[in-house]
Design brief:
The chain is of the alpha/beta class. The chain has a single domain, classed as HUPs (Rossmann fold, 3-Layer(aba) Sandwich). Helix content is about 45%, strand content about 20%. It contains 4 helices and 5 strands, in the order E-H-E-H-E-H-E-H-E. It has helices spanning about 15-30, 60-90, 105-115, 140-145; strands at about 5-10, 30-40, 95-105, 120-125, 150-155. It has a 5-stranded parallel β-sheet with strand order 3-2-1-4-5, with helices on both faces. Strand 1, helix 1 (about 15-30) and strand 2 form a beta-alpha-beta unit. Helix 3 packs parallel to helix 4 (about 140-145).
């Protein structure tokens, strides 16, 4: 039986499906859900600075950073609201929910949070917001599966 489920979300349709799956499992097992949104500040191989840091104008950097934070907050709040409004059509009465917004490389942050929070299972969407990833396992999901020490359920 699960005690803690980590739901990694980016606000995409795949994340919504993963959220429904996590809710169903949490209701069945009595597990708590931690909804995690990661603001991607990782440094890609093609650039030596993080996405936000690579923008030369400080006002644009601040604006993008603010927008990314708002997206994260909206993603976790939308999930929380959905749970509170529907309570799984009256079925999810024993689900406890915690939300987190963190920064960094999404896969690394998910794996680190998994260990810090003593997670039993990770639930993640197959691919995120990027359309090119819809035909293959998403880069973040693939890295989480490869690095996880607990079960990972990838939802498509």
């Amino acid at each position: 039986m699960y005690q803690k489920i980590l739901l990694a979300t980016d606000g995409s349709e795949q994340s919504e499906k993963a959220g429904e799956y996590a809710l169903s499992n949490a209701d069945f097992t009595g597990a708590d859900i931690i909804v995690l949104y990661v603001i991607d500040t990782s440094k890609g191989d093609w650039m030596k600075k993080g996405y936000v840091d690579a923008i030369p104008q400080p006002d644009l950097r601040e604006q993008l950073d603010k927008q990314l934070r708002e997206e994260g907050k909206k993603a976790v709040e939308d999930f929380k609201k959905k749970l509170e409004e529907t309570q799984c059509a009256g079925k999810c009465t024993n689900v406890n929910l915690e939300t987190m917004i963190k920064e960094g490389n999404p896969a690394e942050v998910i794996l680190k949070t998994m260990k810090e929070e003593d997670i039993d299972v990770v639930v993640i969407g197959k691919s995120g917001k990027h359309g090119l990833e819809k035909f293959v396992l998403g880069n973040t999901a693939e890295k989480v599966v490869g690095g996880a020490t607990v079960q990972v359920n990838v939802i498509s």
